[in-house]
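[Archive record]
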Amino acid sequence: MEIKRRWYHPGSFSRAMLNVPFNIKMISAVIFLYYLGWGMVSPFLPIYYKSILGSYTAVGLVTALLPLFSLLLDIPAGGIINKVSKIWVIRIALLLYLPFSFFLLSLRSLFHFILFRIYHSAISTPLWIASDSYARENAPRWRAAESMSVYDVGATLSLIAGPIIGGVLFVHFGFSLLYAISIFAGIAFLATFFLKDGGQHEKTKDAVKELIFTDGIYRRAIIDFWQNRLLVKVYSFIFLFRFCMSFVAMLLPLFMKEFGASNLQIGLVFGVYYLPLLFEPYFSVYAKNKRLMTMGLGLCAIVFVSLFANNQLSFIFFHAILLSLLFAAIIPMLNGRIVELMPREQIGKLSGVGMMFSHIADFSGPLIAGVVSDAFGLQYMFLIGAAVAVVLAILSLRKGFRKVLFG
């Protein structure tokens, strides 16, 4: 059965945003508060890792360890979250972030980073799957793209304001600014008490037993996911797209630092890089525009090639905005299509399997970027990004794949 969709003119979309369910607005606010701390420190994390570990390969490895370890937790976390209260999963994860900053500032070796990333993945994976599932569960199907875009705006706002604030504060506090992660996680925890949970859930202990001894955690989830062939194809496309996005956040501050940018400039450019993503809800109006996706991917390839060929700070500033704008145009199309293809009763489970695609991309991108940067130079990774964007643009032109992406 086809899903009836409601369409809005871009000029009237602000009203549409205000009309999404309260739970969508509230989970967006929780994610904003939690991620504001990350936004403040994110431009300086690759620099912090480089100061301790010394090479781009090590920075890439440390960055890649989080999605690597999260791969092992995606499916069981998704399966459990599908059966228990998503709000309580979010609350427990946020509580476990309270000592996070202290541990991060205590790291002194690669082995320490490996242990730390295991802990980090154990709390971040359930948090993101639970929050994503909660948003999808509360998103009306006739406003799928709009609702998920409003949810995404929470993280986007924090990544715009955070780096600019962090750039100013870093001048005074240095790497002590990393305490912002734990502080804002605590504030987000308090905000979760405004979320509404109207569903019926199993006890966590019973849900875990059922998954382990009855469902067969990985087997059952993968079978259910694989049977939804359209969803598999969409997530395969997302994997390549996510790969293009995954290494930019790591390379951008290192790229600027290499060419003499100040910490304040790095924070400003990093914040401006995420600014166009704020308009993601407006682009969701065009979630079924096939031409927009193909043009956006083609322009991504051009911008990546331009970044490879230029190293002036003003040029990086302009291209960072343009690249982010193109990402913002494409993301709602993919998020909206996922919501359409996921059965409501399997959202948590399928979100866990789907998250694996993102984590594999997030693992591959930084790791390859680190090795390539040490071997050839930071800018050469942009050529790889351009090649992947070209492949995606070609796929989006194929008639069969257009039906997969747009229905």
Summary: The longest helix spans residues 144-173. The chain has 20 helices and no strands.
